[in-house]
Structure formats: structure tokens, C-alpha cells
Amino acid sequence: MTYVVTDNCIACKYTDCVSVCPVDCFYEGENMLVIDPEECIDCGVCEPECPADAIRADTESDMEKWVAFNAKYAALWPVITEAKEPLAEAEDMDGTPGKLETHFSETPAQQAV
């Protein structure tokens, strides 16, 4: 089992989950986070921390596509190890349907210099 980030994270990017992860398996895109399914130790502490309810266990139905999605972008994006402020539009975008098609960015997060 592993945990994955789903589309409700898009355009919200709350990072409460990052601060509780014991293995630093979160990776940061421009407007969402993903979990590396190979690094996740299945502890589950991240799931209840997500204000957007965007983290799911891969044992739930229809999660196969999210496992692949998370693995793909975890390989492309930088690791995130400290919590940050959510995106400015997070509250307004939380729960908006269809964000994968309309708001997702493949761009990695900007790294602090």
C-alpha cells in the first residue's frame, strides 16, 4: 500500500502533509504536490493533515491512475521537506471539479536560491 495525492491538491498546494512525513517522500510542482509511491512507507500520517482531502490510500477504488501520476511527477519534480504557505487561491479552488484538465501544471516548483 502507498498514499497518493489526487487532483484536489491542484491549485491549492497545502503543505501540512509535508511537515508530518517522516521520510520526505513529497515532491513539489508549480501548483500541487505528489508522493513518490516507492518512498512512501504507508504510515498514513499525511492523509488526515490535508485540508483539501486530496491524499488517498492506493487501496481505494480508481487509484491506479493516481499511483502512476504520482510516480511520474515525483521523478521530475524537486523534493519538498518543509511546509510553505498554500497558493493564494487555495480556499476558492478547494473542491473545484475538473482541476486536472483545467488547472494542472507540469512545471516543477521554483527552488529557493
What is the gist of this entry?
Keywords: 3Fe-4S, 4Fe-4S, Electron transport, Iron, Iron-sulfur, Metal-binding, Repeat, Transport. With 113 residues, the protein is α+β, with helices and mostly antiparallel strands. It has 4 helices and 4 strands; from the N terminus they run βαβββααα.
Defining key terms:
113 residues, alpha+beta, Alpha-Beta Plaits, two-stranded antiparallel ribbon, two-stranded antiparallel sheet, 4 helices, 4 strands, globular
- Helical percent range? 10-25%
CATH topology: Alpha-Beta Plaits
The mean pLDDT is 96
Low-confidence stretches: none
Mass-distribution shape: globular
Strand order of the largest sheet: 1-4
Please state the oligomeric state of the protein chains shown: single chain
Q: Indicate the CATH architecture.
A: 2-Layer Sandwich
How are helices and strands ordered from N to C? EHEEEHHH
Strand content: 5-15%
Structural class: alpha+beta
Briefly, what CATH class? Alpha Beta
**What is the total domain count?**
1
Largest sheet: 2 strands, antiparallel
